[in-house]
Batch of 3 targets.
Target 1
Amino acid sequence: MSIPLTGGLVSGDVRDGEGKPLAGAHVAIFDRSNKCVARSETDPYGFFAAALMPGAYRVRAEAGGYQSFHERTEVEWGTHSSLGSLTLIPDATLTVPTPGLYEIDPDHSAIRFVARHIAMSRVYGQFMEFAGQIYIAERFEDSQVEVLIDAASVFTNAEKRDAHLRSADFLDVARFPKLHFTSHRFSRPGGNRWLIDGELTLHGMTSDVQLDTTYLGMQEWNGMRAGCTATTELHREHFTVNWQQILARGVPVVGSTIQITLDIQGILQSAK
């Protein structure tokens, strides 16, 4: 990034305690009045840069699972101010849950989905009935999760549409009453982010699925609870859901890609 004619440049890189770059860290820069004047995410090598008017600034760097970092700097006209490496310290409350068996609380959890309709709008829905368990092992990578979803509990707030989704065109709940997810690998790319690889059985077909998961920590409320959110993307064709009604201009009525979002609270049943 070149230095602007009427200002200066500030840059730096964000790293973890081991010196590894933190890609996607959030960097915000505030002026003397505490107004945010620049905001960016670090690149794959942890670097960021911003062009600013001359003056005093406060730089804040944040990443999931780490304590935020604050640094002050002075930007002068026609100069480049390098902050060097900003090291983020892990947040001990967002490492991993207490090892043990957790039962998913359906009253405080949700499994939602979004599908594109006639390439113009999105249809939002969820499954109302599901159950599952999460086992957090002493060695985190050995953890496991299993979830069963009642296919007939699909709900999009439109009775006719829900009946169609339950039909043989889509979920075919008479033949395939359950959706089943079971994990085979847990990993932690860094901070409070997990990757959970597993297999989803839907419509009689099993396909690999990866859940991009954010761990939210633990709280005590009617039992010790751990929380997380997760997202993934499914393709209907992978599960032989091939209903292909097309509009006259060649646009599919229902898009092939389904976005899945999970909000999960697990209640600790027994500690390891």
Target 2
Amino acid sequence: MNAPPSPGHRPLRIDAHHHLWNPATRPHEWLAGEEMAPIRRRFTEADLRAAAASAGVGRTVLVQVLPDLGETAEFLALAAGSPLIAGVVGWVDLTAPDVADVLAGLRSGPGGRFLVGVRHLVQGEPDPRWLVRPDVLAGLRAVRDAGLVYDLLTLPHQMPAALKAVRAVPDLLFVLDHLSKPDVAGGSLRPWADRIGALAERPNVVAKLSGLVTEGDWATWTVDDLRPYAHVALEVFGPGRLMVGSDWPVCLLAADYARVFATAEELLSGCTADETAQVFGGTASRVYGLG
């Protein structure tokens, strides 16, 4: 194992997955409930800069929160004026017949050059086969034709359909968010491990080492709780197809920004310096075309 580079010579760190929101301007129904009270407030780009500095992060990818074109347009305009946000994963209605036109419209608007990908909240779809509906597959092909990537936000029971979608559009690059949310709190690995292994066999899939702290017990989780899932991800994807994301501010339910990145460092402690640099920045830069 190689020693990590000193902080003064650390390669550029990229947070490949975070959010921003303001519940006062748009309804965020998912923030209802007492357990969400700690994050039921506005989180701004200035807040992000302060958090990112705590972990030595120099660039970020801002990911959609709501199925709302207005939010995506605002995120793109924000990125255009931010020295930190290097890319935006936005939202479009994949089932609409005009996906290509909508994407073109977003790209022609303020900050349109920062659009690097598209995501839909598949985890909330009641149909476990939503991703393989003909209209959704047509939308995914429009994303491919626009030269963008597609972020997969799925739960373990939706992974079989995700695999079929990945096979159906083999020339679209898919990014699996949060490792498809394994059951960290329950400590079970299967069938999740088998399903993520099948996804990793497809060369057009990469994954985010993100969101794990909130899949464990928010108050008592430890690095050892997360280690089996990170180990599986490293084994099946390898460092060149993994990227670290904070999932901030959602992560604040279980850990602050700096602790999330410190945890990632521990989970990657067996990797070489070059491998760690890939997970902490190189993969995200390449996949999202951040330059």
Target 3
Amino acid sequence: MTEKHDPTDAYEVIVIGGGAAGLSAALVLGRARRRTLVVDAGEPRNAPAAHLQGFLSRDGMPPAAFLAVGREEIARYGVDLVRDRVVDARRDGDFLVTLDGGRTLRARQLVVATGLKDELPPVPGVAERFGRDVLHCPYCHGWEVRDQAFGVLAAGALSVHQALMVIQWSKDVTLFLHRVDEAELSDLDLRRLAAAGVAVVPGEVAGLVVDDDRLTGVRLADGSVHAREALFVAPRAVPRTGLLERLGAELRETPFGSYPVVDERGLTTVPGLWAAGNASGFAEQVVNAASRGYRAGAAINGELLMADLDAAVSAAGREEPEGATTGAAGV
């Protein structure tokens, strides 16, 4: 049985997630005069960072200010925004979205832009300093800490790549193996590290040394302290794909977690269900996420337009009087 819903809770598109990807999709849809709602739980991935970098015209802007501007822009085009969390989503012809606050909303198309969560290494002090002088992306923060004494906290063999990358911003780099056995590193890894001038320090990291609210060192379990001013870590990425899975979207395994299979526009394997930003891939920076949201929004408008036109053509065919003829065949 089809459920009855308040028409005020029916939208053409619901966007789940109010970050760069979700707001960008909503902006395009609002400008296309689509009745659109953004549901924002208020948990942006880059909240710990003081600034965002690498976004042309927005370089150095605080993430909170960036999102505030985005919310103002979508409001100009009649896009609704609600601060709430989606707790369930299912299909009943259209998509039915249930909010934590109790409302159930209906949408013809659904965009999931819920991003991912960074799980940090359980080393005392790392979480407290994350986004300040404990960092993970040199493209996001390398310039701001350039020429300082860098540390890299190993989380696996891939951390060698991170240590090699950051030498572009500092020639004083130390790779702390932490719980990684040096035997896990290949001969090529070791030769590259040596060529790059990266020092390799074995031994478990016990914590950070902070003086006057600044990172000054890395302390090992044996009590030794290595002076460092910035520490790069590799968080474990946890994609927020629960809603996509619930709706039947196919996922693909990557070294960084399971992400939905999407086409070049962001459409998943479920018709009408889209993914954008870090909900669709690990490596989407803010500028990339905004681009993916824009592309999805434009594609959704086209999908809705053609669906409505095809429905009108079909309805017109059904309404044609029986026996009616046209053209030369009717002469």
